[in-house]
Write a structure and sequence with these properties.
Helices cover 2% and strands 34% of the residues. It has 498 residues and is mostly beta strands. A 5-stranded antiparallel beta sheet has the order 1-2-30-29-28, with no helix packed on it. Strands 7, 8, 9, 10 and 11 form a 5-stranded antiparallel beta sheet that branches.
């Protein structure tokens, strides 16, 4: 059955917050070589209800957000609140923005960039601020770069529910859920200095064939174009269609690659509200929250040319032990498999973490609310944000609810699945001579850095960070770092641009 989700529902989902701090001991999973650990519980000391996926910074710490705060947390569980939005008590009440959501991005200059879903200097069509784009130093000092709805009728967009991606040109690209020429959302570009350009207004074609209401962010493909999803529109419904997958160039030329709900009952999926990930095989992978063979969401694969394959339909077994309603996107880990979360389902119907192979074999790794003591879900419940693999090899995520107290406001958790340390780069592509940051663990004493076999000069900044440049003659492939503790490979290929 088609489920209707309005703007207020989405705002309420993303703005759940309490406040809180308690460190929990981990609980061993029933699967060999897999360990789940609750590393932090929001219990009243800190603002709770984490709504954002975590990102690992060059200092090795993890950064994320709750209803109105940005925090950092070490992999061992020490949390620091960096900034709280919307503390003003005079009109406009939240000129700095309100409700930072989804994933921050650490730019090549070391600062973080992100969005707030509401707030800002201008009131939107619902009577409150229409959201903002901000820059924040690693220490937590913010600067508002742009407030949406600066133009009549919010032609520049409103309600950026997703984060940003920094492209190879140095600019940031993102989406807004509302606003634009037809009030159905936009795709935009913004410079590091705050100059915004609307690249596309959604629902610009008859029947919204190009899609409407993009809820998720973008990913830059290896071809240089950007790929994303819209939660509505498409070829099979006016405005309220099943959503789309699209490609857009940096100058705003949009191509709809696939329209969901192509068959009766939407067995191919419905309502894609999460972003895509491009796997090492070149294809893109994503989720739909609804639809599929059992109407409880799907995992899909789509080629850059638009050929879609539904890999898995959730709630395939009685009681949904495999999970249901995946709200977030996927992570491809260093083992080549994809990892994600479901909001509900699992063995205890409070959400799950799953692994799925690129060909569609799914394994439920952890079911939340597994500890049968008061309170009911000390390990957290209903995970609605994505996962991140830190350079120590472990996977980290958040839950907006649950925790080891009667009024807890969510958790930060870690999941070890037996994967070893690795390195990753910022950015993920560049020309010869481009400055590159390599992030890892125990990098002190590194003796060699190479780009697909071509040696590069480098400087070790700290134990978690190396500065280097793309060497002349380098080709696309993995980066290798030799340390006293062994050889580390990058999580994916580095794209050497011509």
């Amino acid at each position: 059955m088609k489920r209707n989700v309005n703007a207020a529902d989405k705002l309420n989902w993303a703005r759940r917050a309490c406040a809180f701090l308690v460190l929990l001991a981990g609980a061993a999973m029933g699967l060999p070589a897999q360990t789940f650990k609750t590393i932090f519980t929001f219990n009243g000391t800190e603002p709770g209800g984490p709504t954002a996926a975590l990102v690992q910074a060059t200092n090795g710490d993890l950064y994320g957000g709750t209803g109105d705060t940005v925090f950092k947390i070490t992999p061992s569980g020490t949390l620091t609140t960096l900034y709280t939005f919307c503390t003003q008590t005079v009109y406009p009440y939240c000129p700095d923005g309100e409700g930072p959501v989804w994933r921050l991005v650490q730019a090549t200059n070391g600062n973080f960039y992100g969005t707030t879903q509401i707030g800002g200097a201008y009131a939107g069509s619902y009577g409150y601020g229409a959201g903002s784009v901000f820059k924040m130093t690693p220490a937590g000092t913010p600067t508002t770069l742009y407030s949406f709805c600066a133009l009549l009728g919010c032609a520049d967009g409103e309600f950026p529910y997703a984060g940003l991606v920094q492209a190879s040109d140095g600019n940031f690209y993102g989406t807004t859920w509302g606003g634009g020429a037809t009030y159905s959302g936009t795709v935009f570009k913004i410079t590091p200095g705050g100059e915004l350009t609307t690249l596309h207004s959604c629902c610009s074609q008859s029947g919204c064939a190009d899609g409407s209401y993009p809820y998720a962010g973008l990913v830059q493909g290896t071809d240089g174009d950007f790929y994303g999803t819209t939660s509505g529109g498409g070829a099979y419904g006016h405005g309220d269609g099943g959503g789309t997958v699209f490609k857009i160039t940096s100058n705003g030329t949009l191509t709809t690659l696939y329209s969901f709900c192509a068959q009766s009952g939407c067995p191919d999926g419905d309502y894609p509200i999460a972003g895509l990930v491009q796997a090492t095989n070149g294809d893109f992978y994503g989720t739909t929250k609804y639809g599929g063979a059992y109407e409880d969401g799907t995992v899909f694969k789509i080629t850059p040319g638009g050929a879609l394959t539904t890999l898995y339909s959730f709630c395939s077994r009685t009681g949904c032990p495999d999970g249901e309603y995946p709200h977030a996107g996927l992570l491809q880990a260093t083992d080549g498999n994809l990892y994600g979360t479901t909001v509900f389902g699992g063995a205890n119907d409070h959400g799950a973490v799953f692994k799925i192979t690129p060909t569609g074999t799914l394994t439920t790794l952890y079911s939340f609310c597994a500890q049968g003591r008061y309170p009911a879900c000390p390990d957290g419940e209903n995970p609605d944000a994505g996962l991140v693999q830190a350079t120590n090899g472990d996977i980290y995520g958040t839950t907006p609810d649950g925790g080891d107290c009667g009024n807890c406001g969510g958790t930060v958790f870690g999941l070890s699945v037996g994967l070893g340390p690795f390195v990753k780069t910022e950015p993920h592509s560049g020309k010869a001579g481009a400055a590159i940051t390599i992030l890892g663990t125990d990098l002190a004493g590194a003796t060699s850095v190479s780009f697909n076999g071509t040696q590069a000069a480098f400087d070790v900044v700290m134990a978690t960070e190396i500065k280097t440049t793309v060497p002349a003659g380098a080709t696309t492939g993995k980066i290798q770092v030799t340390t006293p503790g062994g050889t580390l490979l990058s999580s994916g290929p580095f794209l050497v641009q011509p």
